[in-house]
Amino acid sequence: xxxxxxxxxxxTPRGCQSNGTCGTDSCNKLTVHDWxxxxxxxxxxxxxxxxxxxxxxxxxGFYRFLEAMRPSIGEAVVTEVAPAGYDVGRVxxxxxxxxxxxKKKKVxxxxxxxxxxxRKATDRDLEVWQQARNKEQEVQKRARExxxxxxxxxxxxxxxxxxxxxxxxxxxxAEQRVDFRQLIKxxxxxxxIRIEMRQIxxxxxxxxxxxxxxxxxxxxxxxxxxxxxxxxxxxARYQQLSLxxxxxxxxxxxxxxxxxxxxxxxxxxxxxxxxMETKLKTEKGLAICQKMDIFKGLLWYTYKDEWMxxxxxxxxxxxxxxxxxxxxxxxxxxxxxxxxxxxxxxAVAFENVVGQDSLYRFxxxxxxxxxxxxxxxxxxxxSRSNDSK
Length: 389
Description:
This protein is of the alpha+beta class and 389 residues long. The chain has 3 domains: 4-35 and 46-122, no CATH class; 135-204, GMP Synthetase, Chain A, domain 3 (2-Layer Sandwich); 276-371, no CATH class. Helix content is 28%, strand content 20%. The chain is built from 11 helices and 14 strands. The longest helix is centred in the last third of the chain and has 20 residues, at 369-388. The N and C termini lie far apart (92 Å). Mean pLDDT is 83; it is low at 7-21.
């Protein structure tokens, strides 16, 4: 996920202007393509004067602006913050598409509590904002040391400074309730700013920090996924996956959200299959299902006393046997319904994969100098023996 403006010049992002955040917003987290940008409004309809602004990581908000401002996507703006101060962010969406986003997130456009855009960010605003962001890592490290000194069972995962640098929001995760009143006093004394503590879940923490999943791509929660639905182990059972927590859990420590993506397709496909616990009655004995392949539509059954010999049946054949069993009929054997394909193995003649090369081509050739040196040594020995005589 990148754009042409993210190329670097002398080690500095050319076009991002905010330490890796794209200026055109084509490689940001949770970005939305404005497909209504080039469309002309109908006659008599006023433009929608609410913009979507993105801050650090995936935090976004809706802000009302004056008609004369007209912000554009990727532009840095100064936003209003209650009760005091201001923040700096980048516009991610404008126009009629913002109305659909507000409806999706259940935000009333007519509410009076909606904050407003103060102005477009100046060079001074961007300088103060950049200085505040540069202090975040050092402040986070110092805050973790203060929390460890107080023996608080919490994890400070991220720090976000306000645009004016007068307030910082600390995001933390904890299994139990934490009394951090003394921690707030110590941090306010150490940093000289207003402190806000905000508890988040493990999945929201992973979405803020980001990362690479086991599939090799960026995490879904940090790129496009906005709603975190509950994931149960039943989703893994439907998909015939082994219940291994190391393989099924994501970076947040919980079950992967992608287990729900194909769950509906598996459920619809399993309607054509018989249940695994259903036994087939044959004259040779009861047949028990051992394995199921949803993609190929096959099942493997074994007799109760012959566990090593598996019989391959299609889902339709298994359903026919079950229907006959319900009517009181007992089939002769599974071999009559088996769909095993016998493939003839052709005898392949020996082929010289090496070609015309010799098998000794990697051996070092014997040098002739060794023979000469050997002959010289023999002559010397003979001369010595003759002298001794």
